[in-house]
Amino acid sequence: MPEQAPEMKPLHDPLPFRRLNLRKRLVLILLIATIPGILVAIVLAIVALQRESEHIQTNAKRLVAIHAAQHTNVIQNAEIMLDTLVEALRLDQVEEEQCATFFTDWVRRYPSLTSLTLLDANGEDVCSSVGTEMPNRIASEDFFERVAQEKEFVLGEYSVGRTGRPLIIAARPILDGDDTFLGAIAVGIDLRWLEFLARRMDLPRGSTLTAMSVDGGVLNHYHAERIDSDEIAAPAETVPDETVRQAMALRGSGIERGDTVEGRPRIYGFETTESGGLIIAVGMPEFEEFERYGSALRDTLAAPIGILALALIAAGLASELLVTRWARRLKAAAEKMADGDFGVRVRLPNSRSEIAQLGESFDLMAETIERKQGELHELAEQRRALLRELNHRAKNNLQMITSLLSIKSGGIADVEARQTLDDIRDRIVALAEIHRLLYQDEDGRVSPNFVHQLGEHLAGFYGTPHRRIELDLADVALSAEKAITLGLVMNELVANACKHAFPDGREGVVRITLTNDGDRRELIIADNGIPMDAEYAAKERGSLGLRMVRGLVRQLGGSLEIEQGETWKSFRVPWPSS
What we know:
The protein is 50% helix and 19% strand.
């Protein structure tokens, strides 16, 4: 015998892919193939953003350091200027008008200075530059006492000038040869030099530059971006929150993340100047710090995304041109073949591609199936012709045997012998009818109405005016072998009941019941004729008919049960459906 081909295990799609057609699957494959490239691009973009973030923070800190250094340079310049003036002036030779002109010329040389004032030992103004911003009554402040006591350059706290301009006051004492304090020259340093630097910054939109005292108080607050307006002062709501200012004042320098007064997140780079105790902070919006680089990043990501979109479109068109239309053609041919059209062919264009080879294999399979189908039809037709011939001959032979038995029975004088021949003839007639009902289909299939047709035949054959046959038959599917066996059992039991249960023209009913409970079936032949006494029962159990019934029941795989009730006796034949 040829070796049986190994059974191929069925393939199962993962649940999410079961509803995807071939084109979508091909596009999905391309999408999966491009995912690593997209991930690399995203990772590179994230790395670039992180680097840019570090660069911006470093840049902010660098700018702050530059501003702090500039502030220190302004203080140092002021100290040098005061040293020069102290060496050049003598209090006993100063005239107020000449002094004012002299100081005004010096202030004009230094844009970061607002005013110069000559003070006597009591702190009273001797003379000042024109348009001085110096606060009134310096003598009453602790700053002047420090100048008198320390007798060296002193940098004071932040003050507000006469016109509201923020200042830092510095002073250099004037001493005689015995280091006696004679007075001082005070200079007002304008903090608005920060405005000059702020106008030249080019930071992200919304950035600010803030000057603070060492206790976190806000001295100046400017825009730190290039703006077209002359108004450089930033809105008060963009000032760092009190918590952030205190944190910067505590740390002195570094990077701090926090909110503005209005609650907007910012990144602050801050530094404390070496002189003057000034804290300078540059703040940038946290979520807009990459705005200037956003376009480049979008371009970086847009390129692979655009390539992916074009690739997906191209994949969809290419899959339609090269794969899916031929796959649909194969599917349509397979559906036609499933409907019984074995003459269908795919006929894909000649090619070395797998899809073309699949089409050729399909066409070859279709041709083989069509040829085999034709051979099967021819064999089936020959079988039907042979079966018709056999059935015809069997029917003729059974009719001939029945006729011979009838002729022979008519010539026998012995009643018992004649009855025996009549019984044999009736059984052969029943067998002929079963044969006729069984092979009505030329293909040899058992008719689904076989049991009902047999029951109607038995009712017509054995029924008489005084003996009625009742039928209660369920639908049962039977093989040819079991149909013949069941038909013979039904005929024998019905014939037995009609022959023995109603002697001398007694009236009654024979009931034929067939039940089907799925895995169990049961035939019941019951009658309400004469009861089965012990002598009758013993005679019946030893009769040829019942012996034949028991043999047939064993072929069904069942059993024969005889029950006698008050008015009915029954012969029950249960057997399994399998």
